[in-house]
Amino acid sequence: MCETEPTRGSKETMVGERNWAGNYEYRAARIAHPESTVELRDLVVGASSVRALGSRHSFNDLADDAELLVSTAGLPSTVRIDEESRTVTVGGGARYGDLARELQESGWALHNLASLPHISIAGAIATATHGSGDRNGNLAAAVRGLRILRADGELVDLVRGEGGFDGAVVSLGALGVVTEVTLDIEPTFDVGQRLFENLPWDAVLGRLDDVTSAAYSVSLFTTWDEDAVSLAWLKERADQPTDIGDDLFGAKALTVPRHMIRTMDVRNTTEQLGVLGPWSERLAHFRFEFTPSNGEEIQSEYLVPRARAVEAIEAVRRLGPLVAPLLQISEIRTVAADELWLSSAQGTDVVGLHFTWFRDQARVEAILPALEDALLPLGARPHWGKVYADRDGVVPGLYPRLGDFRELVAAHDPRGVFRNAFVDRLLG
Ligand SMILES: Cc1cc2nc3c(=O)[nH]c(=O)nc-3n(C[C@H](O)[C@H](O)[C@H](O)COP(=O)(O)OP(=O)(O)OC[C@H]3O[C@@H](n4cnc5c(N)ncnc54)[C@H](O)[C@@H]3O)c2cc1C
After folding, report:
1. Helical segments of 3-47, H only
2. What's the 342 CA to ligand 1 centre distance in angstroms?
3. Which atom of ligand 1 is nearest to 119's Cα?
4. Which fold has domain 80-188?
5. Are 302 and 381 in contact (CB under 8 A)?
6. Is 0.90 topped by the overall pTM?
7. Position in ligand 1 atom list of the atom nearest CA 284
8. What CATH fold (topology level) applies to the domain 190-389?
9. What is the pLDDT of residues 399-408, one digit of tens each?
10. How far apart are CA 240 and CA 259, in angstroms?
11. Per-domain residue ranges of the chain
């Protein structure tokens, strides 16, 4: 199945529109589709409450609850590479897949991608979206600069190292509309992907550090109720060779490609079996031209401090009988620490425990409290763009810089034009 292009060209659409997964219907009265920064500014200045809408790949009300949603899909997305500073500047509404193609054609690379290249850049960094790799920060960690259109119509440039910058990158859309993003780049590199079957739980629990550091990026896929982790998915850089043969701590290298969800078409995934190819066609799990994941799904993810990861994995295994019936697949991956105030990796390396559920909202919401009773006390931070419950209001306390973020929001947006119910729940 081909991915549909985001709506372009039409000035405004109305109620009834949904997010990419279809599990959330936007409640905003209007969705506008500006095609220039001037048009965007007129819309923002004239509205009492606004939220930016990226490629709609979040699963909750984070992008919603405003009088007006402004889609960023039609805004200018020219790519400017600066070889001397090793940066690229691009429109916030551009998608990683488009940027990756242009960078690769010019001999440059990003350090990492999420599982899918279909997401918008500003939407991804606003929620601390990440891929995997012990030494790879999330996508927000690569941001060197931001241009933000604020509610008063002013365009503000923020640069890494300046006061407030660390709070403005993972912004949840609360400061304004990010019209341009500047990202770190490096010379292009090749990657090969290999999948290994049936990794023993003893290896995962007893040698987690060895397993996750085995390659540039390592992801483990499981349904939690199985005797061994069904798949270990390794992305190996050609310029960082590993000495792994066909055996990974007891898991055997696959000789045929595999989708992590057994019922899905393997052609949707990026090339496997160790065939080397550019980073832009290997670092994401899913091909840009095809549907990522399943489509009919809901996702949740909890980022656990690395020091508590084994406890967290053991806890979820104990809940296996509860979660497995609702699960299409789970992914365990790693993210390096950063200092971005609302990043799920702020101040600590983390291990992400990700859940791709069947699209049954009521049943998923019913089991989340049990999962969160096990994980949140370990310091796990829920992914901002996915479904979580936080029944006891624990999440704000997991971010030591939340008070600073509250002040930053007030400074950039004193009238609270970009605040919504989600942000209010967090900031109080
Ligand atoms: C199939 C699938 C696979 C996924 N895989 C991963 C993964 O591998 N890793 C991971 O971490 N997450 C993953 N996600 C989650 C996804 O990356 C995040 O939800 C991300 O935020 C979606 O970006 P978006 O452009 O769709 O933003 P939206 O969902 O449209 O918006 C998200 C937030 O960003 C804000 N925003 C959007 N554009 C702007 C802008 N220009 N300026 C200011 N704020 C803005 C919105 O207001 C909102 O607060 C996946 C989701 C799906 C559907």
Report:
1. 37-45
2. 15
3. 25
4. 3.30.465
5. yes
6. yes
7. 8
8. Alpha-Beta Plaits (3.30.70)
9. 999 999 999 9
10. 25
11. 80-188, 190-389
